[in-house]
């Protein structure tokens, strides 16, 4: 074969290899992803699934001893950064939702609120029309001590390990979600360490508006399945969201009056769920304005 032809072919092969390597390099750069490094590493692999509807975290990997050890580490992080939240100047929006539903028995099956259908209808009306969702917000720089739970206190949480069942952590991208489950039944004095008590007596007051037909006794309240869920920034530990879930079973005697006197005294039991969510924005609007003007 002509030497010139051989040389030309060799040059083509070398060029092809160079372009091939260049292509590989380009592809490698295109596929490079940014790894988010947690400022405070936490054990996040104890959670295998989280049911949003039932708010149940299922763990099938760790022994109870390992779960307890990890919960301690996660809970310490939770308490520290919850209490740091009040020292900031964030803009915060709040949504307060209330719901009345049927209580459940030991097997998890729902039970009737009352044996009297008039009473059941009254409770259903109460849930639909007298427990509206409430929304409030404050601007950046306003007093968070007066806005975030526990209102008027310097702390957000004074809960201890003795008062919680478990704490779990899930890191997804830039977000870290920590769920703290309180022990059930939960004592009112434990609730007061982290929650603003949206007193269930306010619900009972709604019943009293129908005093021409009904009188309501003193309620007996039992708290259960209470949770606090926070979403924080993995890189900065700054809290973005806080959700408080408070569930309680309410037992009260209702007595018919006037045209409903034939009802007599009827025991009533229902479940009252109060969910309060806070969305926290730590962005300083003055700094944003300055950057926009540059």
How many strands?
A: 10
What profile does the largest beta sheet have?
Answer: 8 strands, antiparallel
Distance between the termini: 68 Å
Give, in order, the helices and strands.
Answer: HEEHEHEEEHHEEEEH
Shape: globular
Number of helical segments with 4 or more residues: 6
How much is the radius of gyration in Å? 29 Å
Number of domains: 1
Q: Look at the helices and sheets and give the structural class.
A: alpha+beta
Q: Which quaternary structure do these chains form? A: single chain
Outline the low-pLDDT stretches. 5-22
Give a structural overview.
It is a single chain. The chain has 6 helices and 10 strands. It has one domain (49-293). Helix content is 28%, strand content 31%. The N and C termini lie far apart (68 Å). Strands 3, 4, 5, 6, 7, 8, 9 and 10 form an 8-stranded antiparallel sheet that branches. The chain has helices at residues 3-30, 64-84, 117-129, 188-191, 201-208, 285-293; strands spanning 49-51, 56-58, 91-101, 134-138, 164-172, 175-182, 214-216, 220-233, 239-256, 265-281. It is globular and about 70 Å long. By secondary structure, the chain is of the alpha+beta class. Strand 5 and strand 6 (175-182) form a beta hairpin.
List the helices and strands and how they pair.
Layout: H1 3-30, E1 49-51, E2 56-58, H2 64-84, E3 91-101, H3 117-129, E4 134-138, E5 164-172, E6 175-182, H4 188-191, H5 201-208, E7 214-216, E8 220-233, E9 239-256, E10 265-281, H6 285-293
Antiparallel strand pairs: 1-2, 3-4, 3-10, 5-6, 6-8, 7-9, 8-9, 9-10
